[in-house]
Design goal:
The chain is an alpha+beta fold. Helices cover 52% and strands 12% of the residues. The longest helix is centred in the middle third of the chain and has 21 residues, at 190-210.
Length: 339
């Protein structure tokens, strides 16, 4: 993420950090060595006036502590029917102080206006706030798009809709083709099927990287059916999980999302889990969580989805997850390709 030098930069960056334009939310952004790290979004909290009123904020801040945050940025997207934005920001500031995390910025957004509660200059931050600016033409948006990052979704509903099934997922001929590639662990051709699945992943991502997907729809559908069917095998799935790196992260995200949307019922969970993993690594935490919802709706007991849910909920740093995945990948490759 680019350097943030103003409140407008921060407001423009948050939708890219969480994947959509938030409303009725509290967002915390971790900073380490002045670099933007993890971003967390939670529903706008109810402010309790009891002795334990700081408990939910302490829980949020604990994730920043685990992330190794040196300082933090906080933005409150206050609902139109609430007037306690400053109280909520004050509560989170107290929790950050207790954790010895510096509060670098605290923004109050309400009814299309924003202001910094840390700024005492009424010319810069008048009591009524400044009008929110369009972020699509901001420096942050221009830099993110130039790096290949997609523009954020308009809201959480649009994000969820982006994972919905396409008509191909219910096409009988396509479903029959996917079923033909389903891996049977008792099959005498198991190892060959696993190798075929890994090669299919490599072939399709090559087409995505080259930008040739869609040039030959029949061939693409055949290849997609192979991958969807072969991913029923855990070994193929684990190969796919470790296949991307920092340079191909966004391309793999595009590929997994497309396959999630065309996967027939019963085949969605592996793909949604893979999309969750790359989304988490790229900082799109909200998308990652909804991918897991999609996976568990398809298969409530899917082990990788359950594992990733625990990892995400624990606030495990994406870098640590990426490192573990990278360490395991050579072992999976050796098993599949007889190295």
């Amino acid at each position: 993420m680019t350097t943030l030098t103003s409140p407008h930069d921060l407001i423009a960056a948050i939708p890219f950090l969480i994947g959509y334009h938030p409303t009725n939310s509290l967002v915390l952004v971790c900073l380490k060595d002045d670099l933007v790290g993890m971003a967390m979004r939670v529903d706008y909290p109810e402010l309790s006036r009891t002795e334990s009123s700081l408990e939910p904020y302490e829980t949020l801040v604990s994730h920043l502590v685990r992330e190794g945050a040196q300082s933090a940025l906080v933005v409150a997207y206050v609902p139109d029917d609430r007037s306690d934005g400053e109280e909520v920001l004050d509560a989170i500031a107290t929790s950050l102080l207790r954790a010895d995390i510096e509060l670098r910025e605290s923004l109050h957004i309400f009814k299309g206006r924003y202001r910094s509660v840390l700024c005492g200059d009424t010319k810069c931050c008048p009591p009524e706030g400044n009008l929110l600016e369009e972020i699509s033409t901001s420096r942050v948006a221009v830099e993110q798009v130039a790096e290949g990052v997609l523009m954020p979704f308009d809201g959480i509903t649009t994000l969820v809709d982006s994972l919905s099934s396409l008509p191909l997922a219910s096409d009988r001929d396509f479903i029959a083709r996917v079923n033909e590639f389903r891996v049977d662990i008792n099959s005498p051709t198991l190892h060959a099927d696993q190798k075929d699945g890994a090669i299919a992943v490599i072939d399709l991502i090559s087409r995505f990287i080259a930008g040739t997907v869609g040039h030959n729809i029949g061939a693409d559908q055949e290849l997609c059916a192979r991958i969807i069917g072969r991913l029923s095998d855990i070994q193929v799935r684990d190969f796919a999980l470790g296949s991307h790196d920092a340079h191909t992260l966004h391309t793999y995200a595009l590929m997994w999302k497309y396959l999630v949307r065309i996967a027939p019922p019963g085949y969605v969970a592996p793909l949604a889990s893979l999309l969750a993993a790359v989304s988490y690594e790229s900082g799109a935490g909200a998308l990652a969580q909804h991918c897991l919802d999609r996976a568990m709706a398809d298969n409530a007991g899917y082990s990788l989805a359950s594992l990733l849910r625990r990892v995400f909920s624990a606030g495990w740093p994406p870098q640590s997850f990426a490192s573990l995945r990278a360490e395991l990948h050579p072992k999976v490759c050796a098993s599949i390709f007889d190295r």
